[in-house]
Amino acid sequence: MPTRSTARAGETLSREALNRAFLDRQMLLRRRTMSVPEAIEHLVGLQAQAPTPPYYGLWTRLTDFRQDELAALLTGRDAVRIALMRGTVHLVTARDCLAIRPWVQPFMERSLRTTFGKDLGDIDFGELAAAGRELVEEEPRSTAELGKLLQERWPDRTASTLVNAVRALLPLVQVPPRGIWGASGQTTYATAQMWLGAPLEPEPAPDREVLRYLAAFGPATVKDIQAWSGLTRLREVTERLRPRLVTFRDSSGAELFDLPDAPRPDPDTPAPVRYLAPYDNAILSHADRTRIISDQDRRAIATKNAVIPGTILVDGFVHGVWRVEQERSAATLHVQPFRPLPAARRAELEEEGARLLTFAADGAETHHVRVAATL
Predict the structure, then answer these.
(1) How many Å apart are CA 248 and CA 80, to the nearest integer?
(2) I want to staple 331 with a disulfide (CB 3.0 to 4.6 A). Which of 58, 165, 272, 361 is the partner?
(3) Burial letters for 120-137: b for 16+ Cβ neighbours within 10 Å, e otherwise?
(4) Which residues of the chain have pLDDT under 70?
(5) How many CB atoms neighbour CB 202 within 10 A?
(6) Quick check: helix, strand or coil at residue 50?
(7) DSSP secondary structure letters along 154-212
(8) CATH topology of domain 274-371
């Protein structure tokens, strides 16, 4: 197991030290044996902009993870897909859905006014929310159906604008079969309260959520916490928590907050090759992401439509991208490194890739791992 460092409060942590501390908390230095709900809650949810990334995210972190374990949580209403941090869809446990959505609601409403305020005009948000709630609590509604019904009341607004507004104003979960591995289903909404049969937490708990963030993503600056959550004015939270935390500095001198007993392995701790899921929060949850991806590589994976590809970690840092292609009975894992790979690392990448293909396409007759030439 990784050893804890002897770093003392106030010391400067190198990029490598931050990397190893982060990887340990993200369960990327070694796979863990824990339940799927425990893993989801430890990570404070998994980014779920598409149906399959949470499955890959858990596979790369947990020992012997199976797709049906997560599918059962979704169909059993023990986990849900809902817009949370940064307004993006996350897969979280039912308990976290009810707890976190009230905390991030100010971001949802601020983002709504910024993005759709002009298109919405003088629509009364309370009236729009009430109309949307009535429709989706009558029965789950697809995006198209919800938009069409809302347009009957506000015909001079586009369906997409109205649906996006209701999605921001109300805690709408995406109900199965959306998000079930191997199943297809259009995005269909219900309120969290109706789907889960429980109310939202009456009061947000910012201190609790910041402590959880540090446990999964720390050490971190205030700007990092704000980048992950989408919220502002969180310095008052870290100041309130300061007596319970330890602080360090990064190489630029920025103050880092952390939990006193959180793992901070030796920077020389070996880091195995890992395949990160598309949209993995590991590369999206800090203002300064150089602890895991260089600015150059961050630009390399950027796309105009904000699609984040699956990435590979070599020696703890993003080193390329990957995708699975299935044609008839053949499944191929395409890996594109950004830089030359030592022979041993290439072999490790191929071995881990073969395991990934077995997980992703167990029914395929043939599996191939194709590691391309360096860009």
Answers:
(1) 36
(2) 361
(3) beebeeeebeebbbebbe
(4) 1-9
(5) 6
(6) coil
(7) -TTS-HHHHHHHHHHHS-EEEPTTTT-TT-----EEEEHHHHHTSPPPSS--HHHHHHH
(8) Alpha-Beta Plaits (3.30.70)
* Domain positions in the chain: 15-28+204-258, 36-196, 274-371
Q: Which residue, among 99, 102, 171, has the nearest Cα to 136 in the 3D structure?
A: 171
Tokens in use for 174?
């995406």
The predicted-structure confidence for 296-344, as pLDDT tens digits, reads as follows: 999 999 887 889 999 999 999 999 999 999 988 999 999 999 999 999 9
Helix (H) or strand (E) holding 91: strand 89-93
pLDDT in tens, 15-74: 999 999 999 999 999 999 999 999 999 999 999 999 999 999 999 999 999 999 999 999
Which amino acid would we find at residue 280? D
Residue-level pLDDT at 304 = 76
How do 141-142 and 172-174 pair as beta strands? Answer: unpaired
The Cα–Cα gap between 163 and 154 comes to 12
Does residue 234 contact residue 211 with C-beta atoms inside 8 Å? no
Specify the pLDDT at position 10.
77
**Among residues 356, 323, 322, 347, which one has the least CA distance to residue 337?**
322
Rounded Cα–Cα distance for residues 48 and 58 (Å): 12
